[in-house]
Design goal:
Elements: H1 17-23, H2 27-48, H3 55-58, H4 61-74, H5 79-100, H6 106-120, H7 127-138
């Protein structure tokens, strides 16, 4: 006879890993993370402009910060989260060009930052999580006996 464990969930209420990962995504968290990450990213970029050898490194810093903050706060897996982070990056860089009346060549820099933000805006997954998401996307369902 099995002992009763009140803290153990029943099999019908357990959520599969892929459903849990998909439910944790938040597009508003991605947008908010992009906005929050833009502040230190662009501040470090402005600070690195005073050093001639490190200025090139500064070209990638805002996009990296925006993408990492978006990945942390939005926990996105889908491409929509990448696009949201890249769009926020381009919008913020365009606003900076308009507000500070800087050279319009910085917009080309914003495209580089948008690509960096898009690549770094996805959540880092373990192998088990990646396999669960892949199986979910191709429509493969494991039964209890296969697990």
């Amino acid at each position: 006879m099995d002992s009763f464990d009140p803290y153990k969930s029943t099999e019908t209420t357990e959520i599969p890993l892929e459903q849990k990962l998909i439910a944790e995504q938040n597009i508003f968290g991605t947008i908010l993370g992009s906005l929050v990450g833009a502040v230190p990213g662009f501040l470090i970029y402005l600070w690195l402009l005073s050093f001639p050898f490190y200025a090139v490194l500064g070209y990638f810093i805002p996009g990296l910060f925006i993408g990492l903050f978006a990945a942390f706060m939005g926990r996105g897996i889908d491409k929509v989260h990448r696009l949201a982070s890249a769009a926020v990056t381009v919008i913020i860089a365009s606003v900076i060009v308009i507000v500070f009346d800087t050279d319009s060549s910085i917009i080309a820099l914003s495209l580089v930052n948008a690509v960096v933000a898009a690549f770094s805006a996805t959540r880092w997954l373990s192998r088990e999580q990646e396999d669960a998401i892949f199986d979910y996307k191709i429509g493969y369902r494991k039964t209890k006996k296969q697990q």
